[in-house]
Amino acid sequence: MNKTFLLLLIATLSLNGQDKESQTGLSEQLYASHETFKAGFIEHRRFKHAEIMKFISELGSPLSDRKVGSSVAGKDIRMVSFGQGDETVLLWSQMHGNEPTATMALMDIFNFLRTDDDEFDELRMLISEYLTVHFIPMLNPDGADKFVRRNNQGIDINRDALRLQTPEGTTLKRMRDSLDADWGFNLHDQGRSSFIKDKSATISVLAPAYDFEKSINEKRGDAMKLIALMNENLQAFIHGQVSQYSDDFEPRAFGDNIQKWGTRTILIESGGLLHDREKQKIRRLNFMAILMALQGIATNSHEGYSIEDYFDIPKTSRGFRDVIVRNIQLPETMGGNLTDIAINFNEVENTDRTSYYLRANLVDVGDLSTSGAYLIHDASGYVVKPGKVYPEEIAELSELKVEEVHILLQDGFTDILVGTEPKMHQRKSIPMKLIRKPSVEPSRLSLGTNPSLLFYKADVLEFVLVNGYFFSPSQNWDRIVAGMKKL
Ligand SMILES: [Zn+2]
Questions:
Q1: How many angstroms separate the alpha carbon of residue 283 from the centre of ligand 1?
Q2: What pLDDT was estimated at residue 462?
Q3: What is the pTM of this model?
Q4: What domains can you pick out in the chain, each with its CATH number?
């Protein structure tokens, strides 16, 4: 590439001051265009290793890929590379098998990098000219195929950076050392309970510490500045939902050690976002933020940020709930006290863990005025009663008609006895609590149960709480089921 043209590129795309504005423009363009580059074979989190291997094998120039290791079960760990620049960047995802968000984004980034002849040509040229970027998506194929955290030895790979007893961890260590990467991106997911103030922590970031004193050398400082750049770009889309992950030094973890070994390391933890349980919006945020980070490294524009900018990112708290209902005045039969309740949804999986339904689980009762949740309802002024169990068993759930369910709900029947174990699709599409035996649950709210409650005003049933979902029984049926699916 002609040098004058390159300098022109740098002038257009880089550096401080006024150029932060053009960066914001770029991040908006990337975010807006994500759909164009989205790898369509992934639509949810429970995709398999074979699917991404097939996609990678078909990428072609200008991307290249090679096998760099094998999992315990002998599945390929492959590395995809792009660019010819002097500065080396290594990104790895899904070291924890059930943390797939960044892997989805990396597939989209591969599509982005292999496209040409659009408004992003300059960005691709810049990355290609100044950086050599290596991606190891799905470092833990065995864990990913089972959708579990650990590898097939039962080891948490992220506690194996020193002992190196896992083939997957050993692969990562070998690649970091042989590439002597200047920059490293450690890509994970965190639980939905992480939060800042009254919002979920959708993305948490960290420049991991390399010692117990949490010292900041020049390289860790560089990682902090780059994170400040990413944070600024993310704020435009998820204002107040980026947090700093705990910086306690973990001597066995990869992020901490890779920082220690001299690679400027950045941790990204994809957390929770309302109505995005399958993390497709967070995938899009990863796509934008990672490409902005590569642009920042290629142009040194992270130098326009300070370590203080990094420390301005608020720390992560834990304990955010899925649903809180406040100010429930319980009837005498349930204790007669005033209470708030918190409900979390557990993913109950099918046997091959490719699908799940959400089971509501009562996780707290009492004064929860200091707790936050994705969805908050206020029951002030309502008369509350327990949901009723329909007295007859429904032998065949498939014979139950939509209109019948609607009538049952309007009459305050929230729980029905069923003759056979409900199918997954029935669990997901019938907004009633399906029970196999007459309820033996105590009348008082107890933790671990899935409470059904009715909310009346002037003797009119206005709302029901069933399976953790709060809705009006007179609401249109399609809207009720659509609302359940969005939880
Ligand atoms: Zn993780």
A1: 16
A2: 96
A3: 0.93
A4: 3-318 (3.40.630.10), 321-486 (2.30.40.10)
Ligand 1 center to 239 CA (angstroms): 24
Ligand 1 center to residue 95 CA distance, Å? Answer: 7
Say how many Å lie between the CA of residue 295 and the centre of ligand 1: 25
Q: How many CB atoms lie within 10 A of CB 123?
A: 21
Instruction: Give the residue from 448, 484, 446 showing the smallest Cα distance to 468.
Output: 484
- Rounded CA-CA distance 291/126 in Å is 11
Distance from the alpha carbon of residue 157 to the mean position of ligand 1, in angstroms: 9
- 180: tokens are 């002597």
Q: Which phi and psi (to 5°) does residue 51 adopt?
A: -65, -45
Distance from Cα 293 to the centre of ligand 1, integer Å: 20
Q: What does the block give as tokens for 229?
A: 């750049």
Above 50 in pLDDT, residue 217?
A: yes
Residue 3 has what pLDDT? 42
Token representation of residue 402: 């939509």
pLDDT of 485 reads 81
What is the amino acid identity at position 138?
A: M
Distance separating alpha carbons of residues 158 and 151, to the nearest angstrom: 10
- Round to whole Å and give the CA distance between 415 and 139: 44
> For position 166, what pLDDT does the model report?
98
Q: Residue 246 in contact with residue 284, Cβ under 8 Å?
A: no
Q: What single DSSP character describes residue 93? A: E
The CB density around residue 456, as the number of other CB atoms within 10 Å, is 14
Question: 205 alpha carbon to ligand 1 midpoint, in Å?
Answer: 12
Q: How far is the CA of 188 from the centre of ligand 1 (A)?
A: 4
Q: Calculate how far, in angstroms, residue 450's C-alpha sits from the geometric centre of ligand 1.
A: 29
Q: How confident is the model at residue 436 (pLDDT cuts 50, 70, 90)?
A: confident
Tell me if 424 sits within 8 A of 350, measured CB to CB. Answer: yes
Written as one letter, the residue type at 337 is N
Q: How far is residue 44's CA from residue 38's CA, in Å, rounded to a whole number? A: 12
